[in-house]
């Protein structure tokens, strides 16, 4: 099951006199990923290498390091931690000792990996849109049952006869939710896809 991050996380490390700072954050779009990278890059640093992954979209940059020694290892760390909707920037201040291509790949990938390991993660749940209609008096209980199953109330529309709800629920929870709603309404509330 893929994960995203609860918020910004940071990891600092010194490797052979070079300082590395890895920053990671959740994203919801490619524009947001690029904005995070621009906001957290340090123009005084030697290199600002980054990678982001959003479903089947991904990008990475070595920012002047030898090709394939920074961006790809950061992206590999994102995938190794089973993360999605995540952007990672690893900032390096050169310390005077060359690390070599293998050392660079280990340093960038390792910093990103440790940053993601220490982050608070949230499971990404695939949800299906469903709808239902309930009475005013049942609304609070319906919302409670939806929330207990990890679902979301996307939209609620009040009418003269009750409330029309647009929901997003995990595929495996639909049958359980249908039974719970039927029990609480004596069979009146039906889920529709």
UniProtKB/TrEMBL annotation:
It comes from the Bacteria. InterPro entries: EFG_III/V, Impact, Impact_N, Impact_N_sf, Ribosomal_Su5_D2-typ_SF, UPF0029_Impact_C. One of its GO terms (molecular function) is ribonucleoside triphosphate phosphatase activity. Residues 132-188 form the UPF0029 domain. Residues 16-116 form the Impact N-terminal domain. GO terms for cellular component: cytoplasm. Coiled coil: none annotated. One of its GO terms (biological process) is regulation of translational initiation. Pfam families: DUF1949, Impact_N. Belongs to the IMPACT family. This is Thymidylate synthase. It comes from Pseudomonas brassicacearum.
């Amino acid at each position: 099951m893929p994960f995203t991050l609860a918020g910004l996380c940071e990891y600092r490390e010194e490797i052979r006199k070079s300082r590395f700072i890895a920053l990671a954050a959740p994203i919801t779009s490619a524009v947001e990923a690029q904005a995070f990278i621009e906001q957290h890059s340090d123009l005084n640093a030697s290199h600002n290498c980054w990678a982001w992954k959003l479903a089947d979209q991904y990008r990475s940059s070595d920012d002047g390091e030898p090709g394939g020694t920074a961006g790809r290892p950061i992206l590999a760390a994102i995938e190794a931690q089973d993360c999605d909707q995540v952007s990672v920037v690893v900032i390096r201040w050169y310390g005077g000792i060359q690390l070599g291509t293998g050392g660079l790949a280990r340093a960038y990938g390792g910093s990103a990996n440790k940053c993601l390991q220490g982050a608070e993660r949230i499971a990404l749940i695939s949800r299906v849109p469903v709808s239902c209609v309930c009475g005013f008096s049942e609304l609070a209980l319906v919302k409670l049952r939806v929330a207990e199953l990890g679902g979301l109330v996307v939209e609620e529309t009040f009418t003269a006869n009750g409330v029309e709800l647009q929901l997003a629920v995990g595929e495996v929870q639909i049958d359980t939710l249908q039974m719970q709603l039927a029990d609480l309404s004596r069979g009146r509330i039906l889920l529709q896809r």
